Structure formats: C-alpha cells, structure tokens
C-alpha cells in the first residue's frame, strides 16, 4: 500500500488540514513501534532522527520544526520496519545530540498544554513562537550550545536572587549590547518579563479601589469608578487625571492552575505528587504528615470521589502582613497570600521552591475586614478546580490526560490574620475560638487577659485546688464543644457589612452596642460562604 507523504512538504502547517491529517496518520502508524519506555526517533528538522521522544513530543516537534526533507523511507516508524531496529537507538539523555537545556523546559510546557491535542490550530502555537525564536537563536555567532533564551533565563534568575532593580538590569543589558554588538538579547527588563510570562511565570494586574471597596475585575473590569463608593479608579491631580492613567492600587494575582499543571509536567514531580498515598506511614500511631491527621481522614470520608484519585491536589493557605521597605518608621503593610501543596512529602511541601505565591495585596493599610475583596480571584479559581477540574497531562503515567481537581483544606496564620480570614473577632472578652461563649477573661492593667486554663485538667487533678495562680480553686468543667448547628446559628445573627474603608460606606465605625450583639463573628467571609458541604 502506498503511503501519502506529500503532507511533509507543506510549509504553512498551522492552517493546513492536510498536514494535520497526515501527521495524525504518521503518529498512528508509528505508535506500535515505540520502545518499552514509550520513546521513538523524532524525524523533525531539529532532531533529524538522532534523538528519541515520546509521541506527544514528536507531534509538537514536527508541527513546529517541520518534517525531515530527506527522510523518504520511514524505516524507524513502521515502513519496512525490519530494515531498522529501535533497540539500539541512543536514549534521550545519552548525549548523542548536544541540545540547549531550555529545550526540555519548553517540551514540558507545550506537552502539558491542555490544547496539545488541538495542535493543528494556529492559536495553540502562536504564544510559543517568540520562545522558540529565542531558543533557536545563537546567543553570539558561533556559540551553538548556549541559546539566547537560556542566557536570558539565567540572567533573570540572577536579577531575582540578587535583588537588582529594573533600572540596573536595563543598564546591564545596554553594557552587554555595547561590548558585544552581535549578541542576540532583549533590549529591556520589560521585554524580558514579557517573554518569561509566556513560560507560565507571569501574573495578572488587577486594579483596586483606593478604599478597598471592590476590584476592577470581571463585571467591573471596564468601570471608571468604584461600584460601592463611586471614587475614581485613577489617581487625580486637582480634580483631573494625570497625563497617564495610573490606578490607585494594583493587586497582583498569580494564577494557580498553570503552576499545578507544571507539577505534573515532569516524571519526577509527578511521582512526588502521589507521595501522600503511596509513601505515607502505615503506623496509625505515627504522624509525620497531615495525611496522618484526623482532619485529612475526615475530608476523605466525606468526599470519597475526590479522594479516590491520588493526583487530586490538597492545598493549604497562609497569609500575613509585612513591611516591604525594611523601615519600621514607615507604616506600610503588604500581604502575600501563599499556597502550599500537601500532596508532596513533608521535607518538600514547606520548601520555598514549592510554595506558590498566589496574591500580593497592596498597602498601605492591612486588608482587615476587606480581605474577602482581595481573595475573589483565588476563590473563583479554586471553585473551578473543585467543581469541574482542568485537563492535565501526567508525566508519571505515560503523559495521559486526566481531570485534576483541587481542594483548600485549611489556613495557616497567626491570630490577627485568622480574624481577617475567618471573620471571628480577634479581640475582646470572648476572643477565644475554642471556648467561644464560655471564654473566661478579665481586664489587667488596661488589657484583656484570658485565664481558666486549669478547666481542661481532670476534675481530681491537684493543680485545680492550688491557690498560687489567682488565689482561687478551679471548680468549673472544661468548655463545652460547640456543634456546627451552634456555629451556624451565630453566623445567622451576623449583619451584612459593606466592604471598604470609605468613611461614608464600609469605613463607618460601628457602635459598641452593635459589636456586643455580635461578639463572636463580626462578619461572614468568602471562605465560609464557599465552603464545601459534606
């Protein structure tokens, strides 16, 4: 039977149905002839049958670089297969073909793209054109082992690690261009950052009302004024805009889904994402990871469908404020919101390289009761990851696509941050979230002090009758355990609050009588409203 190979000569591949159909036929013919690791020689114009890859990568390479013009008999891919054997082929990492290390990075990014199955469409590859151009460009004439992209990535890494300013980075680029005129390099830090964004390392800039009332996002993305307090979106001078539209505040949001997909893009991290099920302790008396705790087991029991797939992601959220200027005389509080992945083993899940910055909340004031306003983009993405999931390629399972879901299990924070995230009053006579209404407290030198710790001891314990603490014996029982019904009843009594710090809207100080009526929960929060019901 004659094989139609005319499609290999088509140059305009992105919009060609003939090329796409021919490529799929070629891959179907080659599939039975992969080796035991799923690899086969790549006939693209870059690898020229010297390097082996999986079929998904072959598909990407042939579409991007084209098919070898002098490979007329497909002896390695099913045509007259006895003429050659794949058993003696060099392995991908055998060093037969000296390639730039960034090549593997782009392979992981592209092959893990949810649209990789639609590679014949133009839109799926346009975003990578600049990356491939930089990857295929020599940094300097005659230097083939070090691409322009590789050099730029290393330079950006030095920029971050050594805290260079954007201006100093630009000056360095100018010096390099002056000293090496033929060097293929970007012109500025701005251009470098745009290129890095295409590798999934970017963020979204979301404008915020000056009073923290609302985000100019989604339904408000085109608004010029705040929907709550009607303040202008832009900074003004003498009642007029400045020459350029400059927002009052900018929230930086780092999308979660692309970074979770990257964890499954390589076989090493994909295997580690299964640790919580495969490698966990079998001794019920040992706790070395949250998977051994009661909260994790209770979640699995209530949501068996989610727990059934070991690859579904368990997340924890941490938030706190800090002064970015390293100068305590300047009152400024910026709040990062960080996510950690608890699928990973305990010696990795808290390492800086596996902590994912999700939000960078601007100052100068802490978000306080307006934390919900800033959490909206993250909560919307978490809801999507929980309800429908996203298509993800699993490098630990022959790069098969699965529906990855994610759940936020808990938050990690100090007491003031807990108040912002949960809505529970972090101050006052009834501030203890465990004791709730039964919190024992008193005023000591102008501050609220909490006592009654001996109530948790057994009724016959000797310290209960000791008078050294406050001159009294402790006869009260330990605090009662409040049920979910009790907590929901307290939440129903909470009045709706207006977000923001505008003095005529959300910033109006509430009367002490109102606060006494709502002494436990001050408000309902976006985390509480979007909790998963068992």
Fold blueprint:
Layout lengths: L16 H14 L9 E2 L10 E2 L1 H11 L36 H10 L11 H4 L2 H8 L11 H14 L4 H14 L9 H13 L2 E5 L6 E2 L19 E2 L2 E2 L7 E5 L3 H7 L3 H6 L2 H4 L15 H9 L1 H5 L4 E7 L15 E7 L13 E7 L9 H17 L2 E5 L5 E5 L1 E7 L2 H8 L18 E4 L2 E4 L33 H9 L19 H6 L8 H4 L5
Parallel strand pairs: 8-13
Antiparallel strand pairs: 1-2, 3-4, 3-7, 5-6, 7-10, 8-9, 9-10, 11-12, 14-15
Summary tags:
single chain; 534 residues; alpha+beta; seven-stranded mixed sheet; two-stranded antiparallel sheet; 31% helix; globular
Report on this structure.
There is one protein chain. The chain is of the alpha+beta class and 534 residues long. The protein is 31% helix and 12% strand. The chain contains 18 helices and 15 strands. Strands 4-3-7-10-9-8-13 form a seven-stranded mixed beta sheet, with helices on both faces. Helix 1 (17-30) packs antiparallel against helix 2. It is globular, with a radius of gyration of 29 Å. It starts with 16 loop residues before the first helix and ends in a 5-residue tail after the last helix.
């Amino acid at each position: 039977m004659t094989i139609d190979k005319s499609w290999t000569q088509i140059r305009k591949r992105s919009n060609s149905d003939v090329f796409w159909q021919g490529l799929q036929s070629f891959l179907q013919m080659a599939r039975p002839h992969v080796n035991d690791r799923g690899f086969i020689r790549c006939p693209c114009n870059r690898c020229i049958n010297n390097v082996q890859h999986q079929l998904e990568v072959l598909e990407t390479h042939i579409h991007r670089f084209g098919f070898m013009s002098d490979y007329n008999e497909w002896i390695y891919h099913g045509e007259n297969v006895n003429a050659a054997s794949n058993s003696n082929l060099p392995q991908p990492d055998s060093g037969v073909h000296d390639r730039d290390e960034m090549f593997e990075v782009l392979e992981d990014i592209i092959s893990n793209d949810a649209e990789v199955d639609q590679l014949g469409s133009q839109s799926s590859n346009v975003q990578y054109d600049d990356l491939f151009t930089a990857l295929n460009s020599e940094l300097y004439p005659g230097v083939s082992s070090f691409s322009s992209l590789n050099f730029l990535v290393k330079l950006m890494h030095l920029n971050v690690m050594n805290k260079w300013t954007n201006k100093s980075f630009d000056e360095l680029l100018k010096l390099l261009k002056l000293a090496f005129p033929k060097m293929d390099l970007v012109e500025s830090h701005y251009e470098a950052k745009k290129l890095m964004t295409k590798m999934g390392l970017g963020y979204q800039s979301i404008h915020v009302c000056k009073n923290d009332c609302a985000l100019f996002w989604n339904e408000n993305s085109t608004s010029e004024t705040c929907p709550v307090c009607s303040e202008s979106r832009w900074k003004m001078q003498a009642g007029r805009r400045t020459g350029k539209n400059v927002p009052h505040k900018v929230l930086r949001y780092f999308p979660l889904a692309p970074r979770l997909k990257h964890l499954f893009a390589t076989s090493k991290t994909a295997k580690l994402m299964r640790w919580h099920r495969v490698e966990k302790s079998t001794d019920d008396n040992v706790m070395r990871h949250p998977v051994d705790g009661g909260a994790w087991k209770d979640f699995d029991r209530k949501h068996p469908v989610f727990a059934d797939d070991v690859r579904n992601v368990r997340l924890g959220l941490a938030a706190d404020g800090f002064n970015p200027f390293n100068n305590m005389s300047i009152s400024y509080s910026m709040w990062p919101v960080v996510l950690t992945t608890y699928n990973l083993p305990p010696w990795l899940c808290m390492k800086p390289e596996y902590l994912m910055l999700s939000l960078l909340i601007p100052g100068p004031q802490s978000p306080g009761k307006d934390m919900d306003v800033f959490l909206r983009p993250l909560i919307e993405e978490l809801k999507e990851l929980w309800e429908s999931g996203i298509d993800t390629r699993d490098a630990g399972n022959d790069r098969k696509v699965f529906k990855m879901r994610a759940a936020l299990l808990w938050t990690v924070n100090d007491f003031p941050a807990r108040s912002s995230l949960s809505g529970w009053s972090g101050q006052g006579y009834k501030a203890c979230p465990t004791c709730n209404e039964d919190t024992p407290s008193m005023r000591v030198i102008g501050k609220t002090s909490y006592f009654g710790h001996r109530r948790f001891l057994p009724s016959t314990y000797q310290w209960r009758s000791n008078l050294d603490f406050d001159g009294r014996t402790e006869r009260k029982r330990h605090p009662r355990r409040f049920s979910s019904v009790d907590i929901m009843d307290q939440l129903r009594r909470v009045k709706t609050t207006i977000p923001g710090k505008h003095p005529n809207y959300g910033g109006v100080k509430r009367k002490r009588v109102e606060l006494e009526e709502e002494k436990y929960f001050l408000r309902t929060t976006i985390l509480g409203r979007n909790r998963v019901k068992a």
